[in-house]
Amino acid sequence: MKKETILKLIIISCIILFFLRIIILKINNNNNNNSNSNSNSNMKIIFVGDCMFGRNGNPFSKTPFINVESLFKEASHIFLNLETTISNPLLNDNYKEDKVFNYQSTGEHLLSLKDITKKPIFTAIVNNHTLDYGLKGLENTKKFLRNHKFIHTVKQKVEHNNVVFLNATDHCGCNDPKFWGENVIMIDYNNLEPIYQKIKNISDKFIVFSIHWGPNWVKGEMDQKIKNFGRKLIENGVNIVFGHSSHHIVDNPIEEYKGGIIIYGLGDFINDYVIKPQFKSGKALICVINKKGKKLSYETIEVKRNFVKEGGSIPFLQ
Ligand SMILES: [Zn+2]
Question: Which of 52, 86, 169, 288 has the highest CB neighbour count under 10 A?
Fold first, then answer.
């Protein structure tokens, strides 16, 4: 074969390979787009309650989610209530708000969750510890979450792939509720219309509303006022009300209501609190909500909070 012919053949082969490569890339891209646009039709969403990682830099397990790893890996979305300021380095006591308990930690414990899953993690940061270390503490927390791609918000809705997330609290456990009210959404049960209006303005989205509600210790079921609020949120368009605050599993912790789901209280997931046997606060629930099309169903998995030698108490599957 002539040298010229060989050269021609090589050039033609290269051109064919080049176009083949482009076609393959296009097919892959289309597949990805399809899976993205369908990503919310089916979801497996994990909800857990309060997570705090010790106080004053006390020793604490660096891998607090280690025993629930297998479950978390299966989830398409994760929601948790972050009950602590995150600051690295830790802020000094001058930043402390006048409260009985002020929580802050360095964030490495929360970050260990990113080693377990790359799926979206929605972090509720509006609760009675949001401003434990003042505005600087809140700024540091937001910076940490932003840098590590945890989805979060303070006052406005945040949206991720068609999931809209909002968070609020009905108490601050502080001496300056005005300060809290100026910086986070504080629920006033006598004036709920603005909250409902906020939700009504969101259309065609899957809405999760996180609410830190009620007392630490609840005798029996949640208060009627709280139940009414949760149900009204659903009636106004919320799909899942993610309630938390009680240090233990409340009676009837989850309710299915008009196609939505209301979580009243799953108990504390990670912390350093002593266990109150009369409330069985050493137990907590993981709530797994399955979304198939528009239909929601849920299951619960009980965990036991045990103290570990590294510090703190972390969940163990039963
Ligand atoms: Zn709380």
Answer: 86
Domain of residue 91 covers 42-317
Distance 184 CA to ligand 1 centre (A): 14
At 302, the amino acid letter reads: E
Read off the pTM: 0.87
| 160 and 282 housed in the same domain | yes
Domain of 87: which CATH number?
A: 3.60.21.10
How far does residue 244's CA lie from ligand 1's centre (Å)? 8
69 and 218 belong to one structural domain: yes
Structure tokens belonging to residue 51? 């997570």
What letter would DSSP give residue 259? T
* 158-160 vs 283-292, strand pairing mode: unpaired
Report the DSSP pairing between strands 283-292 and 42-51: antiparallel
Ligand 1 centroid–CA 299 distance in Å is 24
Q: 168 and 203: one domain?
A: yes
Q: 309 and 179, same structural domain? A: yes
Cα of 250 from ligand 1 centre, angstroms:
14
How many secondary structure helices (H) and strands (E) does the chain include? 7, 14
